[in-house]
Design goal:
Residues 6-20 form the BZIP domain. This protein is mainly alpha-helical. It has helices spanning 6-54, 69-74, 81-98, 114-122.
Length: 123
């Protein structure tokens, strides 16, 4: 800054310094928000796992879509995680088994090896 006075140079340096501090603070704030989001997701997952572990291991099935007697009686209309998961697994297996089988793909012609291509180039 050849034409600038010392006072102008100091003012510009201070402004740049403040701007860098503001940018660093914003970056830190974004990182903190991301960490808070991850923490909340982990906390919810932990609570869900605790709920699943606290539930009895086996649920007698009813005709009402896999809701156990225990779950229906103590939790009103809510479904237990275990019974919903096993019901979805059964539906997935049924869906997959009902899919038509795929035709077999024709075999690919054999490709020349790299060595044979290289020897042809040398000739």
């Amino acid at each position: 800054m050849p034409g600038s006075t010392r006072r102008e140079q100091n003012r510009i340096a201070q402004r740049n310094f403040r701007q860098r501090k503001i940018e660093k603070a914003r970056k830190t704030e974004r990182e903190l928000e991301a960490l808070q989001t991850m923490y909340n997701a982990l906390l919810q997952e932990h609570e869900a796992l605790k709920a699943v572990q606290a539930a009895p291991e086996s649920h007698p099935r009813q005709a009402s879509g896999g809701v156990s007697d225990h779950s229906a009686r103590h939790q009103g209309r809510s479904y237990s995680v275990v019974s919903v998961q096993s019901e979805l697994e059964m539906q997935l297996e049924e869906s997959v088994s009902s899919l038509p089988s795929l035709p077999s793909l024709p075999s690919l012609p054999s490709l020349p090896s790299v060595q044979s291509l290289h020897s042809e180039q040398l000739e």
